[in-house]
Amino acid sequence: MDDLFQEFLAETAESLAVLDVELVRFERESSDTTILSNIFRLMHTIKGTSGFLGLPRLGSVAHAGENILGKFRDGELEVTPRAVTLILKAIDRIRGLLTEMEAAGAEPAGSDADLIDEINALAEGASAPSCGSGAEPAGLDELSNLGPRFSEDGFPVAAELLVEVAEVLSAPFQVLALAEPVLAPEPVMAAAASHALPKEDQPKQAEVKEQAAAAASSIRVNVDVIENLMTLISELVLTRNQLLQTQRGQKDNDFKVPLQRLSHITSDLQDGVTRMRMQPIGNAWNKLPRIVRDLAVETGKKIELVMKGAETELDRQVLEMIKDPLTHMVRNSADHGIENGANRLAAGKPETGTIALDAYHESGHIYIRIADDGRGLNVERIRQKAVANGLTTEAAIAGMSEQQILQFIFRPGFSTAEVVTSVSGRGVGMDVVRTNIERIGGTIELSSVAGSGTTFLIKIPLTLAIVSALIVESSQQRFAIPQLNVLELVGVSDRSEARVETVNTSPVLRLRDRLLPLVSLRGALGLPPQGTSQDRFVVVAQVGANTFGIIVDRVFDTEEIVVKPAAPILRGTRFYAGNTILGDGSVIMILDPNGLSSFAGQIDAGDSKAQDSHGAAAGPMSNRSSFLLFRAGGTELKAIPLELVSRIEELDAKAIEHVGGRRVIQYGQHLMPLVPFDAAHSWKDQGHQKVLVFSDNDRSMALAVDEVVDIVCDELTVELSSEHPGLLGSAIIAGKAADIVDVSHFLALAFADWFELAKSRAATRRALLVDDSPFFRNLVTPLLTSARWSVTTANDGVEALKLREDGQQFDVIISDIEMPNLDGLALAGAIRSDARWSRVPLIALSSHAEENDVSAGREAGFDEYLAKSDPTRLPETLARALRQAIGRGETDPLRRAS
Amino acid sequence: MTTIETTVAPSADNHGKDAEAFVTFTVAGQLFGVPVTQVQDILTPDAIAPVPGGPPEVRGLINLRGRIVTVIDMRTRLALPRGDEKTVMCVTVESDGEPYTLLVDSVGDVIKLPRSLREANPATLDAVWRDVADAVYRTDQGLLVALHIDRLMAIETK
Known about the structure:
Number of helices of chain A: 30
Radius of gyration of chain A: 33 Å
Helix content of chain A: 40-55%
Distance between the termini of chain B: 32 Å
Strand content of chain A: 15-25%
Strand order of the largest sheet of chain A: 10-14-15-13-12-11
Oligomer: heterodimer
Number of strands of chain B: 12
Helix content of chain B: under 10%
Largest interface: A-B, 26 and 24 residues
Distance between the termini of chain A: 93 Å
Radius of gyration of chain B: 15 Å
Strand order of the largest sheet of chain B: 1-4-7-8-6-5
Structural class of chain B: mainly beta
């Protein structure tokens, strides 16, 4: 009986979760008899089973609820929010009783007369005119005798109940957390909902049969068993690795073949158990409809919750970790994001607000998008609050983009809610949300458009338990780097082509004409210096949009490692993602590239004070990039994105020649023009001239500078106010004010023909530039404007489409692919499917330009697809793309026809 | 790695309220005690994997039968000078579900100390010690400082 009781508790909890969801659905679609039948059936089952087990309180509450449902079904009672609220209350009461029962092992004493009276009053009131034939509201005395009643009423009732108990116990289940009884598996809901039940009795038997059949193929397993199994598998994987390691040093012997088999079986077993731990993300969502519904009723708003991809599966452990953050964000959206009906109508939006949840798999990660079409975040208020709370200064925030200001909501101690409601305060806890997500190796991005809504995009790994990792060594200590973050390995030595160089004290690597900021593992971790050998390796790692190199002494192979969380006292160290035991039994730390990335391009990491202050100032952010700081044409610091610079050279002043009134230098096979930073530059006759080289395949230009100061990693915060040619504006980079240099200006000076205007053109053409990166907007806009294009910019696809709504017309649209809210592909689709812009040439400009990216772009409707990866070539490729996109017969759009 | 399981007869347990059993060990000549019920293992560590960048109190990690255990350097934890002990021992305890092992100079015995010998922390005790000491016992071998494991593990991390 004890087992039966446990089963009943788990079952009923699940039924309640389904009831929550279904009732909310029913309230919206009250004419749908299928939903009602399902609700009725669930409630009836709870009542029946309670009676069977002798639980009078539970039974009487369920009976009262069923009573109202019966009246809904018979059309005697109108489906009103009040009535639904009452049933939801009854469900809550049952849930409360279950919790107490689980703790106490028996139904608690007490009375539910208050609730039952309220429910009966409603039922009575409605059915008073036609009372008599309808289901008679049961009195309390009678109900409390519900338990024994079946025996008094004779066999048939008992038999019916027994069938129902059997039905309950044989219903199909997937592996579920018993400890989390409120989880209701999606398939059960779907299966239940898909059974249309026009009448109660006939199809029911069929359903019972079907469910019984389903029961045979799935069983319920306690979560502890699976967790245990996972731990054992982890140990097995380790032992397997150990054996493989031993075998590796041996010649072929009898163990080889069986060992290989063991290895394969272990891998399969690991896969199997990992799959077993997978649960649909819908499990973390199923409370949300109820939460949103209650919030909507409480605040008098109309909100629709749209959920897509609920079947997307992810690891149980990950699921647990994101459940609360998700709930929190949806609450925030409902409470603060969505405006009330009147305000929405006034803003020209539909009265009902929408919160959309979307989950999907992509390249080993799960993406979850939470979007609302509410008022968006109030940038102005965040700005004020950030300053008021001392998170930043007026001066610093003045140079920040909206995107950067929005990021403040993730900072601890930030809240914009003037009135913190009972439900949530927007911003309260967003730092916790971010911390939780980052703890499991995820990231969260935010974008918000005033008046049209806020979108969060969460990216999390599929599983945390077992990952593939690269084992490296520094100062004779081994570390693991998650393979997911590793792009490539480069061997470096003084003799090889790839060399580690330093700019000031920051190490950089020339990698295929690009300068890659480096972080020395030894330096970052403060390991003891080691030998003099210069033969080292650079692990090129990627974190979000950042690419950087990690210098290590040696690289071993890749191993499947079992990630074990580090002890709590080690969690304050941001270099580590956990630790593990290798095949040889040794314990090693797993590096967290996220934590290391903030060191890339930093002043020598030996200075621990600088580390700390930097770490405290800014966590790794998606919009951080590396900058080269230098001085030229004055004492002010100038900054240029490091990715634009292909080389830093020191030229012999004597080698500089004059050709056609310009300074050039022989550089490889070509003449490279030398451009001074400003006209007042005093050229040296002797010694060396420092230059920054920008190059494309066969052309390079050199910008003469006085001094290269440093490489720093910081957020880009351009203020677009510079009147000075060659400067985009000023910014604060690594705490210092610096002018951001407009590379295109100097490219134009070097190669005037790239940018010569098509002066003959009569009318200015209009271009729309869609890119979420202010940097690229700032880079491309001058290229276009200098060619007489009038440029309009948009932050993302949604903003772009708004321009269409405003009736704007463009001659060309250049769009990034990866953007928040609405990405480039979706934008292209939207553009092509609407007559207004369908004929406008469309150019994609993306950092991902692999073959499949290009074909996906073309499929979506782009005419041309350009790689962002080489911005110095942008003028040329853009000109070509414009020419091709706009039509071959046209005047050259960027260059004068020769 | 050699492991000595602590086998403690139920009688040695602190059944009665009048006495408590301790595992004793010394650090820099000072006698310490940890309630025997909290000790999981006593071992001689080898292959301690360091954790660069971690708190100074953490000497490193060891693999204890497939479990990763954090090694706490008791000298650093108790603000004692670094010694030059030739041999060291480890006393494994658990705090908040997490295994830790205390790196000490030598492990003594399991002794049962009557409540009557228990004294509150002397007011003059060093602040660090006062924080981690539960009480002080007068024993034949001198004063024994009874440690409070959870407080001992409350190491501040930046």
